């Protein structure tokens, strides 16, 4: 893990959702999030249309590079490699972290979903993850059936880990301070940003928490 990777994993980490953003509005919506202060963007799209996914990821990568912010691709290591994204986020059902590292290189930012399990995070850190993500901490509109994680887990992880910690799941500007005080470095938000009428203003409400 490079010090550059560690430095960027702090702040608002905005994740796209095809159910919240129409295809033709995706790039503009992400730009609004960046203007509002998002420090990382994750392209998350579970569709089975490779041409569409490639076109969208290519456009978002160009946008993020212009703003000098990293684009992370959810689940798809090959897509990340294809568009030259900054990195990839993998989960328990995704290709192994070591496989992603071998494909994307030492400078890639690779994050790992660890749900409610500190042991998974410790394993990921040992294997070279750049950040780990825990959650859901609160009820989530995006993933209503997601595993719930206790806030105490963040305190335990902060004491045990030296890599950035990302919190996810039902995060609002009002409940964010609880997560930051417990040790989260970044807040991963979907509908709290992209489901709002003014995306830039919504992003800014989260970004100001890190000022």
Beta strand count: 8
* Helical proportion, percent range: 40-55%
The main sheet orders its strands as 1-2-3-4-5-6-7-8
The secondary structure category is: alpha/beta
State the CATH class: Alpha Beta
**Which spans have pLDDT < 50 for at least 5 consecutive residues?**
none
How many structural domains can be distinguished in the coordinates? Answer: 1
Order of helices and strands: HEHEHEHEHEHEHEHEHH
Distance between the termini: 25 Å
Description of the structure:
With 211 residues, the protein is an alpha/beta fold. It has one domain (3-210): TIM Barrel (Alpha-Beta Barrel), CATH 3.20.20.70. It contains 10 helices and 8 strands. The protein has helices at residues 3-8, 26-35, 50-67, 77-83, 97-104, 118-127, 152-160, 176-182, 191-194, 199-207, and strands at residues 11-15, 40-43, 71-74, 87-90, 109-115, 131-135, 165-168, 186-189. An 8-stranded parallel beta barrel has the order 1-2-3-4-5-6-7-8, surrounded by 8 helices. The longest helix is centred in the N-terminal third of the chain and has 18 residues, at 50-67. The radius of gyration is 16 Å and the shape is globular.
């Amino acid at each position: 893990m490079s010090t550059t990777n560690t430095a960027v994993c702090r702040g608002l980490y905005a994740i796209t959702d095809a159910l919240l953003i129409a295809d033709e509005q995706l790039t503009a919506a992400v730009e609004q999030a960046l203007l509002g202060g998002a420090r990382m963007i994750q392209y998350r799209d579970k569709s089975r249309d490779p041409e569409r996914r490639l076109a969208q990821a290519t456009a978002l990568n160009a946008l993020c590079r212009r703003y000098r912010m990293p684009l992370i691709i959810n689940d798809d290591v090959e897509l990340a490699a294809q568009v030259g994204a900054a990195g990839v986020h993998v989960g328990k059902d995704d290709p192994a972290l070591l496989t992603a590292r071998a494909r994307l290189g030492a400078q890639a930012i690779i994050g790992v979903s660890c749900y409610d399990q500190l042991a998974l995070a410790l394993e990921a850190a040992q294997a070279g993850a750049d950040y780990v993500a825990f959650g859901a901490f609160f009820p989530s509109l995006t993933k209503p059936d997601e595993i719930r994680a206790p806030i105490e887990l963040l305190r335990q992880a902060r004491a045990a880990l030296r890599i950035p910690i990302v919190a996810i799941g039902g995060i609002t500007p009002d409940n964010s301070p609880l997560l930051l005080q417990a040790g989260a470095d970044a807040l991963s938000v979907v509908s709290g940003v992209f489901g709002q009428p003014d995306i830039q203003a919504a992003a800014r409400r989260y970004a100001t928490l890190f000022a």
